[in-house]
Fold this protein.
Amino acid sequence: MDDWAEIRRLNRSEKMGIKTIARRLGLARNTVRAALAADEPPKYERAAGGSLVDGFEPRIRSLLAQFPDMPATVIAERLGWEHSSSVLRARVAQLRPLYRPSDPADRTTYEAGQIVQCDLWFPGKVVPVADKVLADPPVLTMVAAYSGFIMAVLLPSRTTGDLVAGMWHLLSALGGVPKTLVWDNESGIGQHRHLTLGARSFAGTLGTRIYQTAARDPEAKGVVERANGFLETSFMPGRSFTGPGDYNTQLAGWLPRANSRLLRRTGQKPDARIIDDRAAMGVLPPLAPVVGTSHRVRLGRDYYVRIAGNDYSVDPSVIGRFVDVHAGIEEVVASCAGMVVATHQRCWARSQTITDPAHVAVAAELRSAYKARTAAMRGPVAAAGAQVGLRALSDYDDLFALNIPSPALSVVRPDLQVVR
């Protein structure tokens, strides 16, 4: 390489002849002539020595032509290959694209107000939910595809009630309803494009569509997948949290900065582009959809109700009556006949007992009143020392004429005697 460059320099810049260059560099004249004739620097090329797999290549091609996805291990078995497996795998990987049909992915363009992509992202066990208990709750991420505007909130669980509650929380803050909400096969939303009852009800109330992508189709949610990666690399490092509320507070404070950055895909900032996105979206429904988890139960003497894996106390004055319990993202509310009988902060841990001291005080008062009432009913008799009267059994015989033999019985069973 150095001789080739120097030969060309001496010939073109110094105007030296072939003999002079050969004498100065100590090279043969033919070497100088070849260097001047070559337009590219010389390269060392070594002839391929061949491989053991070359003789098997026709049979490999035949198998791949019939079964393009046949694993290399199966091909080795069919060929009776007894040599290095890495050599065969390399040749199969080189030949397979020639026989497997290609599946190109086109660039997707988005229109304003049409699509919001949704996904769950897990930050790891960094959120304290109880004393010495760290949890890994899901973060619901929603991204307006046209503008790239990111919305996110930490949820207690990935159940249907919490997912629709999270979507309503973010969309109501956005102030619009897109034409389509794109999800993967999340079990709380549906499986194999069969939506859960809560997801269908939510979509119907908002007048939108929930579309679930096919399995193994990451391109369909590429916008939100990139947002998840951005959360992991830009929001999480160096942060600590005191609880779910603190996590959502820090996340809400960070999102405006994330949405003010210049997005390479659009060449604009998401918080500026979201104006057109929101203007093309539908309006929010006049009545809020049913979100969260709810059920009805008759309140027992143990004045606790269980919801989302935890027990919450209820006003004992409604023991024996039906109670409607609703768990939202932040609160658990119990009501009886339209009257609120319990309000608790939602506990994100599991198998916990949450007690309102006021309910314990009411239970103590009711228990004391019950004991006093019972004692009052028994008190006068015990105080007078009166004896309880007992009626003789013969009185009942006389009352019901059981001491008179029945003629009918004497006819049918002459040997039957009436026993008193």
